[in-house]
Amino acid sequence: MTQTETSKYLDIPLTTLNDWKKEDSNRYKLYQLLISLDKSDVVQKLNKKVNHRVFSILNRNIDDNSKSTFDEIRKAFSKKDYHAGTIKEQTIYSKFFKELEVNELEDFVNTFNVSKRDIKSIYISSPFRNLSGVAKNWDKRFRLKHLPLQKEHNKNVPSGLQSILNKKS
To answer: Which domain of life is it from (predicted)?
Structure first.
């Protein structure tokens, strides 16, 4: 690649490249590397479509015809209520809140150009606030008061085990 092409594709000013071009420069090796790159490889890497991690999460174990697209994900998170979403959108919400890390929210918002307020509204209206592993992290992220989790009281205990438990009491 020529020095002009390097400047154009990598957004490095020509004056900077001229400084790096000098053999006594501490960036001389970097300059040599850059001009030795193949132009087509650089263009291909720069134009490569970046896949967000959410695509692999949402489309895991789903056939090709049912995979969620960029527009479907954006449309799903443009709603303000969990129950307003279709079954597919509710599946997107489920995988999002259960599998995406809280610290990835900013990147998700920037990539899909959606509102954090809308995501928070969906979360508040969803059943995920009652799941201990999910609620703890997302409540903290959205600065919500943690709801007391519902305990299961109606567990069926086999009669033999129940009699042992009763004897211990």
So the answer is: Bacteria
Q: How far is CA 30 from CA 7, 13, 40, in A?
A: 13, 14, 19
Question: Residues with Cβ < 8 Å from 157, sequence gap 6 or more?
Answer: 165
Q: Whole-angstrom Cα distance, residue 84 to residue 94?
A: 14
Asked if residue 89 belongs to a domain, the reply is: yes
Amino acid at 44: Q
How do residues 113-167 score in pLDDT, each as one tens digit? 999 999 999 999 999 998 888 898 999 999 998 877 655 444 576 777 778 777 7
Could you give the 3-state DSSP secondary structure of residue 159?
helix
123 and 83 inside one domain: yes
Same domain, 60 and 135: yes
**pLDDT tens, residue by residue, 43-100:** 888 776 556 788 888 888 888 888 888 899 999 999 999 999 999 999 999 999 999 9
What domain count does the chain have? 2
